[in-house]
């Protein structure tokens, strides 16, 4: 597929409450002496994506992000924190009209993605007309994360950590929060997407449930190398990510 038909949405509007962020958004915390989100921006530049193709969704202290990146990306402002799916939709609407497929990346956990990883995800998504691809990995300690549940009939769902049973807690496969969508499908689907009951917001995992229940063509892309993804949600994880970037 023509790369000009691929767009990227980077979610960078979150506050980082658990990390005590007050004067800048979570994605601007530093690892290896650079903001977390700067690594994925550099990776996308290496792959040849133009600023118009990369929409960064900003919100909390948005000026901090925009001042740092300037014209390296384009921006979409999420005025209210209504969840990851709402942020993805907000970003998607700002992309050029020729964009047909959109890779949605979390700005706080994508610092270790390589150009090869991103290209692999894109290639796997577009090769067979999928409307949704979910990116997963196995992790050693998934305690604070949602699990990927694979039924014997091939059905796949993401169960948020708030809903997992004791048996599901034993599963090591987790959602990275990275998705790739057929743009037209997502933009049509989102306005009727239900909210997450306990959180009162629109979560990206719900898109998987909608695709599954409507019979839309979807898949799970499991990354073999778990080191290319690292979530930063606690001071300890921030310190570990910083250590890895300095090696």
Protein topology:
Layout: E1 6-11, E2 30-31, E3 34-35, H1 38-46, E4 54-58, H2 62-69, E5 74-77, H3 84-92, E6 101-106, H4 115-126, E7 132-138, E8 147-150, E9 156-159, E10 173-182, H5 183-189, H6 204-214, E11 218-222, H7 235-246
Parallel strand pairs: 1-4, 1-6, 4-5, 7-11
Antiparallel strand pairs: 2-3, 6-10, 7-10, 8-9
Helix pairs in contact: 3-6
Can you walk me through this structure?
The protein has 247 residues and is of the alpha/beta class. It has one domain (3-246): Alpha-Beta Complex (Spore Coat Polysaccharide Biosynthesis Protein SpsA, Chain A). The chain is 28% helix and 22% strand. The protein contains 7 helices and 11 strands. The protein has helices at 38-46, 62-69, 84-92, 115-126, 183-189, 204-214, 235-246, and strands spanning 6-11, 30-31, 34-35, 54-58, 74-77, 101-106, 132-138, 147-150, 156-159, 173-182, 218-222. The protein has a 7-stranded mixed β-sheet, with helices on both faces. A two-stranded antiparallel ribbon has the order 2-3. The chain has a two-stranded antiparallel ribbon with strand order 8-9. Helix 3 crosses helix 6 (204-214). The termini are far apart. The mean pLDDT is 91.
Q: What about the largest sheet? A: 7 strands, mixed
Q: What is the spatial order of strands in the main beta sheet?
A: 5-4-1-6-10-7-11
Helicity range of the residues? 25-40%
SS-based class: alpha/beta
* CATH topology category name: Spore Coat Polysaccharide Biosynthesis Protein SpsA, Chain A
Rounded to an integer in angstroms, the radius of gyration calculated over CA atoms is 17 Å
The CATH superfamily turns out to be Spore Coat Polysaccharide Biosynthesis Protein SpsA, Chain A
Average of the residue pLDDT scores: 91
The helix/strand series, from N terminus to C terminus, equals EEEHEHEHEHEEEEHHEH
Q: Kindly give the count of domains.
A: 1
Proportion in β-strands: 15-25%
Count of helices?
A: 7
Q: Which stretches are low in confidence, meaning pLDDT under 50 for 5 or more residues running?
A: none
Q: Which second-level CATH architecture applies?
A: Alpha-Beta Complex
């Amino acid at each position: 597929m023509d790369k000009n038909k691929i767009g990227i949405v980077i979610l960078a509007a979150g506050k980082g409450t658990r990390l005590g962020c007050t004067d800048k958004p979570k994605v601007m915390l530093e690892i290896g002496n650079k903001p977390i989100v700067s690594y994925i921006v550099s990776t996308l530049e290496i792959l040849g994506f133009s600023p118009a193709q990369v929409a960064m969704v900003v919100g909390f202290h948005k000026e901090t992000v925009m001042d740092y990146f300037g014209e390296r990306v384009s921006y979409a402002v999420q005025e209210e924190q209504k969840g990851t799916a709402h942020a993805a939709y907000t970003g998607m609407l700002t992309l050029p009209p020729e964009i047909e497929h959109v890779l949605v990346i979390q700005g706080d956990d994508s610092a270790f993605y390589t150009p090869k990883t991103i290209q692999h995800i894109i290639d796997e998504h577009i090769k067979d007309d999928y409307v949704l691809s979910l990116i997963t990995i196995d992790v050693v300690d998934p305690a604070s994360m949602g699990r990927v549940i694979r039924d014997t009939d091939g059905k796949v769902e993401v169960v948020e950590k708030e809903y997992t049973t004791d048996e599901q807690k034993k599963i090591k496969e987790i959602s990275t929060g990275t998705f790739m969508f057929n743009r037209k499908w997502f933009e049509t689907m989102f306005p009727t997407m239900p909210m997450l009951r306990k959180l009162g917001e629109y979560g990206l995992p719900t898109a998987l449930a909608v695709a599954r229940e409507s019979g839309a063509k979807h898949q799970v892309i499991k990354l073999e190398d778990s080191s290319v993804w690292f979530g930063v949600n606690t001071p300890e994880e921030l310190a570990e990510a910083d250590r890895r970037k300095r090696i």
